[in-house]
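name: query_chain
kind: protein
chains: 1
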Amino acid sequence: MAKEGILIQRYDGGVNNKDSQKDLPEGFLAEAKNIDVSAVGRIKTPGKFEPDTFIAADGGADASMNVASPSFVANAGLFSFRTDEDIASGITAGEFIAYTKGSGEVFIGNPTETLAPEFDINSNDPSNTEPVYYYANGGLRVQDKININSSTTAFVPLEAKSGVYATASKEYHATTTVLTAPADSEFDNLDDSNLENPATNTTALGVPTANILVGVESAAADSTQGDGLWAEGKYSVGVSYVYYDGQESLISDFLGTVTISDGQIILTSATIKNGSISKFLQGFRVYMKNLNDSDEEYRLLLDVDFEVGSRTSLGDEFDLLVSKGSHFSTHSAIEGSTERAYAVQNPSSLTYSAINGFDLEEKAISFHEATAYRYDTAVVANQRAFVGNVFYPDGTGRDNNTPARKLGDRIQYTPVRKYDTFPQSYYIDIGTNDGDEIVKLMEFQDRLFVYKKNKLFIIDITSGSDANWSVIGEFENRGVSSPGAVVKTDLGLVWANEHGLFAFFDTIVKLSNAIDDNTWATNVNAEKVQVGFVPKRNQILVLGDTSSNTSAGYIYDVVTQSIVNIDTSSVLVGDNVSNFIRFNQELCLMDETGEMRRFNTTSASHTIEIKTKEYDFGVPSSDKRLQKVYVTHKNGGDAGNTNNLVLEVAYDGGAFPNPNKFSSTTLSNSNSMTQTSFKPTIVENCKSMQFKISGTAEADFELEDITVVYRRKGVR
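structure:
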């Protein structure tokens, strides 16, 4: 019979090893290793991670971003964030990388400078630090999820303007996130005798012996004032600290008491020693509570902001602090800047709980109030911080001797815009007592995605009120065992586990349907898999095991919806890499030498393997004889290229190489598109045939098409 031919020029389906190799749809390959099929009708090679090629957002020069002896836990260590504030003098606002060594040192840097240590989160137990990061309202939070002696540190922009602060500089500073209540040693005893009615006299509390002196005194109303509306009785005077972002501590009651008689008013003032206050404190608040009424709560009396001033109601304008040289004083501003006490005629309607959204019975309101308090994962969503899998009080009252319990099902969350405040009562328990624990929290479309090892839960957190939140999805076998197994892309969330590669766009879809489940499970270590997003190529990169560069992996192309195999060693150098981060629109990581690397999307040289489907040419029962094969490609590379790509054929599902070899099996090396022809040395009857191209592909490699010429034998 006459010669016939087919043209193979569609590869954009990627690899499919799940279906019969004879029945693969058009565009699919039986093997697709270390290749890129994102362009219809052409195969190229993917990029790889390369060092020292970071490009600044302003197009500036490359810079070295290395850390000596990084000693990190695989699949951890890195974070990226953007800020509108200068990190330090000469280091301007922009995008930055944070990296934590195994010893607990946290390094901050960008392409304009070498990574430099800024603070330490684990100086007490410097071994195998595994950091957990989150970023909110200009501040970076870092804590170690392994060691109980570590602390959560906030790296925040602070500008100390007032002379009350011990230091004053506009840049980032590191501080603990513990919202510690005031200590007795930081305050003088309550002054209840040196205040005068501001309507008639000035007042002067004087220089504090400690840092702060608070004055609270009952007094008869002046003739120009109405009688006081305070209930008679003894009142406790409490004080709290206000920290960064307006976050308030619990109240300390060591200041003492004040007795109020019928019709009396309250006079209050405070002085602050010059240069005595830590820059991380924003101010303090003074409260009073009627001890004769068991139902009474602490009510606001005086609100002091060290930079802005003082007031007696949160709705009032601040009065500037008065500088007295050695100290600063609050004043009522009745006569300009004259130092005067405030006259408070009636109790405030603002209680501590009304201001903060929680009461003073909370066993804890921030992490690391005890050394055991910590969490495994964190995310910011809808102006709140959420943390999961926590060591924290469980609220049952049975843990008085052990202040924290391991609560693997629990999510703690903050009030709105209070990103370090975690009241004990602000929690959600997910899948209680299911024998599983939370591994990763993610946010997408006003929903909180809670990944346990086995299950995925989706919580609708659209409402500003936590009372209206609800679980809207629970999915078996859709959890993750590795924190690095989930990535947020431009389209949605993508993650990997032992069952496959999945995505949530509007619903959950499986992206790895073309991969046999057993093959996937063999190639992907669920405990160490890592998933990253390559924005410039709209591709998902899956590293099957970040502890070994001999493992397998995958690249999924979002546009063509195709998946191909990769050898981790072909895109990565060394074992035990960090987690992925997205930096300047690049997919980046740190290798085990401490060198920062980005995924260069430009095609690179790789050892490739391309295997077509088995072709029976639509007549599976008929015998055929292969006549010739034409391959259109280029593979020039650098001058003097000695690498060769080899074409092989297998008949009837046989193994490669086949005894029926071509007279010449090597594809021509050429810098331009060329066509190499192949003729088999032995002509043999077969029902089907399959083709493989393998070897070292240069960076400029392209495969355009394969033409197969055959002759079908007639039926006798």
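note: The helical segments are 352-356, 517-523, 568-571.
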